[in-house]
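Sequence in, structure out.
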Amino acid sequence: MFEKIEKAVFFTITRVFAWLVILPAFLALVYGGYKVATTYVAGHKAVEVTHEDVKTELERKENPWGDPQPPESKKKKDKVDEWKHEAQLQELLNILGGQIDRPKAEEILKGRIMRQEPKDRTHYIKGLISVVNSTPTEKRLQAVDTYESLWGMASVSRDAEEMAAKGERTAQLWLLGAAFGVIALFSLILILLAIEKNTRKA
């Protein structure tokens, strides 16, 4: 009598409970895998400063020609820095023309370029050349400084987003591990229940 009740009630309840746990865990596994995949595919986000950004900032305030300090959160320079942007730097200096003390400007601009992450430097100098080319001659020096300021703020924001994405990716990996563990555990319970049931029938 007890065995019949056990088969009819206990096994059924345990099996239903196991599936109720396994199904949400499987959905969590799929969701976690999707989120991890999307964060990896997104990769490194490029900083974007357009001529319109610089123009708007120039209209808001005038900035003196100088060498502003980089944001505090800027990463340290790489141990080995290779200078690969001489052609673009000379192009920019030629655009600025007689408005600048060329040796001093070359030193300042090269320093700004080298402060960027290696993967950002080409994008930085190309964007700066484009902005300066699109700016009226009398405002080009201010445009250079404004571009540097806006780039720094956008870079800090980008780095913060990437740090947040990294934290989210770590959390999703923990979710994947937990979901996999739950599925494995309750799948084992179902297997043991099936073995027990077949053994008793025999």
